[in-house]
Design a protein that fits this description.
This protein is of the alpha/beta class. It has one domain: Aldolase class I (TIM Barrel). The protein is built from nine helices and eleven strands. The strands form two sheets. It has an eight-stranded mixed beta sheet with strand order 3-4-6-7-8-9-10-11. Strands 2-1-5 form a three-stranded antiparallel beta sheet. The protein is globular, with a radius of gyration of 17 Å. The protein binds iron/sulfur cluster. Iron/sulfur cluster (SF4) binds next to loops.
Length: 243
């Protein structure tokens, strides 16, 4: 059984456009999985991991009752729901989807052919060869110190090295201040990440917050040769879930 985020009493599976990164604007089916191995303080999907009776910090101070926000689906139930949508781009997001790599490999093997499979990952878990064979794309968002996650948890050399050398991976860094970009430059150099695979995205969960940052982020992209990405879904829908 896969553990999915539960939204309005239903598994969070929805048809929308990719709002960020390399495939921005592309119609896609999103499957939001529950559970994460990190605890970013500004996480906008804390309902996938920040359960009641845990000591994790979060900007919004909000805790979630696990039974109200997590739902389990059988492989057949998940595949039936995915097939309802007129689209073959399938994106697993979270939380951190690769936490559930064994269940994911099993489900993907049962999925009809023709789907383009992508994962939104925090880049701390090396996919198994089995899952890698079933995957077309990784959108890797390595967390910076602005996440307030200890460095040893968010910078996992083996995992970043895997993604840096994978032709399927691209990197998206969420930047909140100009000092964040220095961290990005240092990571790009340390792991020899090709510049064409690197995207900078302003941090923000409202259109106003994004607007404040977009110009200086864009200028730094030009300076360092990175790609710029905004968050179209935030500009269109704000902080609304399930869109
Ligand atoms: S890795 Fe992603 S899902 Fe996990 S806490 Fe950080 S932002 Fe949230």
């Amino acid at each position: 059984m896969l553990k999915l985020a539960k939204l309005f009493g239903k598994p969070e599976i929805f048809y929308s456009i990719q709002g960020e990164g390399k495939n921005v604007g592309q119609p896609s089916i999103f499957v939001r999985l529950s559970l994460c191995n990190l605890t970013c303080v500004w996480c906008d999907t804390a309902y996938t991991w920040n359960w009641e009776n845990t000591s994790f910090e979060h900007n919004k101070k909000e805790k979630f009752k696990k039974d109200d926000w997590l739902i389990q689906l059988s492989d057949d139930e998940l595949i039936t729901k995915v097939k309802e949508f007129p689209c073959k781009n399938l994106i697993f997001t979270g939380g951190e989807p690769l936490v559930q790599h064994k269940d994911l490999s099993r489900v993907l093997k049962k999925l009809p052919s023709g789907y383009h499979i992508a994962f939104e990952t925090n880049g701390t878990i090396v996919p198994t060869p089995e899952l890698d064979n079933l995957t077309d794309q990784y959108n890797v968002s390595v967390k910076l110190s602005n996440s307030r996650v200890p460095e040893a948890d968010r910078i996992v050399d083996k995992a970043i090295q895997f993604f840096a050398s994978s032709p399927k991976a691209n990197f998206k860094f969420v930047v909140d201040a100009e000092s964040d970009v220095k961290e990005v430059v240092s990571l790009v150099e340390r792991f020899t990440i090709p510049l064409h695979k690197v995207y900078l995205m302003p941090q923000g969960t409202t259109a106003e917050a994004l607007k404040e940052k977009e110009l200086w982020v864009l200028e730094l992209c030009k300076k360092y040769g990175f790609n710029y990405t905004t968050r179209i879904h935030i500009q269109l829908y704000g902080d609304k879930k399930g869109v």
